[in-house]
Amino acid sequence: MPDVAALDTRPRRTTFQPFAPPLIGPEEKAELLDTLDSGWITTGPKTERFQEQVAQYVGVRCAVAVSSCTAALHLAMVAHDIGEGDEVILPTYTFASTAHVVMYQRARPVFVDSEAQTFNIDPTRLGAAVTPRTKALVIVHYAGHPCDLDAIYAIAKRHRLAVIEDAAHAIGSEYHGRKIGSFGPVTCFSFYATKNLTTGEGGMAMLNDPEMAERMRRLSMYGISDARRIWGRYAPRGSWFYDIQELGYKYNMMDIQAALGLHQLAKLEQFLQRRARFAAMYTEAFADLEEIVRPQAKPEVRSAWHLYSILLQPKRLRISRDQFIEELRTEQIGTSVLFRPLHLHSYYQKALGYPPGSFPVAESLFERTVSLPISPKMSEEDVWDVIAAVRRLVAKYRA
Ligand SMILES: Cc1ncc(COP(=O)(O)O)c(C=O)c1O
């Protein structure tokens, strides 16, 4: 236990602590300059190398680098031939992308409630959501804490459903000692600016089926036959010829992005260890606060600790969640709320019509959660500042 008295008298921060700042080092900067000077800045040799290295890290045969996790999820939908009349089960407790890609295909998202401990989709509620129209299941490893994959894949097998994993938060996470990305037919990572490994914007799909990977690669480049042709055609021995084989998209990753990704990947283990250390500091420092529920990793997982999301106990505090966030802001601490369940958003209210109250666990998590800053860019002193600010607020507003 840290020295609580010292924390309680710790002076406030004088500079703002952002919620999820990226850590970009000299290696990324040098590689970026090398790319800019190389004469080739979009999809090319560095994107290929980055794909190969991520596939090797995760332990899969194929990887398809794209412009975002949303793009990877969309291509996974197309590659599974999900279309009009199909239903896709997914958690309501997620980001827009997970359901938007189902809507892009004119299929219907069917929402499921969460487990309270992990915020992940509750496998015990999956069976009831399956209908003869259900074609796939999209799961989200919230905060980098893996879902209950044994239960989920057993249900998927029983109902013959494809499982697509939205692992936007979960590069480096493990379930029973195996990396997330190596379980199902398609897993999608995000390399967005706040993510555990960033390329600014970017994403990647992990697969073991080379045919499906080739189709996703083709779809990421307008549906053009051999996606390498698009950049290879400018090489000295390249050919101008290309053939559009199906209606694809412009979802490719640039070498500018891969230049960052190559070095972020090399540092990923170090980043994960730092995140785990900061999560452990929060967990220990809040142990005596009954006003806060702390996130806890199950014994069978390694969490990537993309987020550290606490829950406030409303009956024990004389302050709302939103006021708590505002007070933290005045303490110079940036936070976020992840997520506002999708069924509560006006677009999904109109499109799907789930009334508020439909998913009580997700709604209760949303009403009480605050995600605290966590990033390898932070120092231990930064983490102590956050801890001190949270403790001060709890002491001030204890019911
Ligand atoms: C759960 C989840 N899925 C998908 C995404 C989309 O990732 P991207 O911004 O790379 O499209 C996010 C982004 O924050 C996310 O949190």
Secondary structure blueprint with pairings:
Elements: H1 4-8, H2 26-38, H3 45-58, E1 62-66, H4 69-79, E2 87-91, H5 96-104, E3 108-112, H6 126-129, E4 134-140, H7 149-159, E5 162-166, E6 174-175, E7 178-179, E8 186-190, E9 203-207, H8 210-219, H9 227-232, H10 255-266, H11 268-285, E10 292-293, E11 301-302, E12 308-312, H12 321-330, H13 346-352, H14 360-368, E13 369-372, H15 380-397
Helix pairs in contact: 2-10, 3-10, 4-5, 4-8, 11-15
Residues 68-70, 94-95, 97-98, 140, 166, 168, 190, 192, 203 line the site of pyridoxal-5'-phosphate.
Folded structure, characterized:
- The chain folds into two domains: 26-266, Type I PLP-dependent aspartate aminotransferase-like (Major domain) (Aspartate Aminotransferase, domain 2, 3-Layer(aba) Sandwich); 268-397, Aspartate Aminotransferase, domain 1 (Alpha-Beta Complex), CATH 3.90.1150.
- Helices cover 39% and strands 14% of the residues.
- It is built from 15 helices and 13 strands.
- The protein has a seven-stranded mixed sheet, with helices on both faces.
- Helix 7 links the parallel strand 4 (134-140) and strand 5 (162-166).
- It binds pyridoxal-5'-phosphate.
- Residues 68-70, 94-95, 97-98, 140, 166, 168, 190, 192, 203 line the site of pyridoxal-5'-phosphate.
- Pyridoxal-5'-phosphate is lined by residues 68-70, 94-95, 97-98, 140, 166, 168, 190, 192, 203.
